[in-house]
Amino acid sequence: MTVSELFQKYDFSATFDVDALLAEFDRQMDEGLAGRPSSLAMIPAYIDSGKPVPVDEPIIVLDAGGTNLRVAVVWFDKAGKARVEDFHKYAMPATDGKQLGAEEFFETFAGFLEPVCQRAEAVGFCFSYPTEILPDLDGRLIRWTKQVDAPEVVGQLVGSRIAEALEKKTGRKLSLRVLNDTVATLLAGMSAGISRRYSSYVGFILGTGTNIAYIEKNGRIGKVAGLPASGSMIINEESGGFAGFRRSKFDEIAVEGLKGKDEGIFEKMIAGVYMGTLGLTVLQCAARDGFFSKPVADGILGWTSLTTIDFDNFVANPYVAKGAFSELPLTDEDRRAIQALGEPLFVRAANLTAVNIASAVLRCGEGHDPLHPVCVTIDGSTYYKTRSCMFRSRVEQGLREILGKRGVYFDTICVEDAPLIGSAIAGLIA
Ligand code: BGC
């Protein structure tokens, strides 16, 4: 059997009809904004991105990402430069295989805040999960992603619950202002790109999970009554949940046994926490169809997991000396086969990423004047560290093709610690 025959058998293709997918993204954005059923949640952020950022005023930042949890105190100097103090990094609770109850979860977060709680009155709380934001910037968790195991927290107001737990523990009352990491990334890009006079801003993340935020005209946000007609609002799409792209049989097999297996369909095809599992699925299917030498096939069929890092490292360099593949007695034919089977997964992920970013850029309706491109701020380890298939340059190439053809000018930028900086901005201007 050839690689393309195997891909056909499992209904997998790295390429697809880009225009049709863009149209489906746009349709589901419309549905989500109107409050009708859609796989895109389209969550308004309730942050006025036009406000100036106060100088010399400290704010506490709590950044709950997929893998890490960061706490810091941030303030902006007169030149607008962010100063970060008291920085601490912890593992994200409930990601180590141990389930946490709601009380325990909120107390743990209060514990992270305790050492810095006297440093400021408010907290910019970057909570990187599908969360409905209320106009007072509290946030209600809609569902978990990234395999976090704390089911009782779903449906809870995370900002006020952590504030209560902190007050109980220390007597100190802080106001927590909740936002998504893509919204924070957009805001960080906005402050970094001020001199470039961009026409609009997008914040995209591809790390443990994936998602995008952009600026929408209020007139198109039908599900929120009473917004000023002429204004605009940052929208967190929750694009990791997009279900408008057909899964291959590999994708269906890979999610068996995962939490929320039929949720976050798009994310499970491109994000860091899942690509290794998808790679393992493809390699095990191939092993059963006689692709590798006997000891290598047996070895791969015996694996119960494969990290995205090991998978990517091998596909990028099939002679890599460390990681899971270095334990196998690989022949050059095996190496060739693994590479030929693995690379298309990264190619598909890059192509899907380009469509996701382009759909948000097109949606904002700006970027038609080369003097004022749309600024796309990108954050996330998977985007910057994936080496296979020249991942990043492939995404950029896809963007140039899709947007260039439509006469839309854009720029991609990277802001160091974007979620942290953007959450400080959001907390300070709230
Ligand atoms: C979450 C999003 C988040 C993204 C990137 C996804 O799993 O649902 O809220 O923005 O990961 O961290």
Helix count from the secondary structure assignment: 14
Principal-axis shape equals globular
Q: What small molecules are bound in this structure?
A: beta-D-glucopyranose
Main beta sheet strand tally, sense and closure:
6 strands, mixed
Rg for CA atoms? 22 Å
Which H/E pattern describes the elements?
HHEEEEHEEEHEHEEEHHHHHHEHHEH
**How are the strands of the largest sheet arranged?**
1-11-10-9-12-13
Strand content: 15-25%
Global structural class? alpha/beta
Overall mean pLDDT stands at 96
N- to C-terminal distance: 59 Å
Approximately how much helix is present in the residues? 40-55%
- The tally of beta strands, per DSSP, is 13
* Spans where pLDDT lies below 50 across 5 or more residues: none
Short description:
The protein has 430 residues and is an alpha/beta fold.
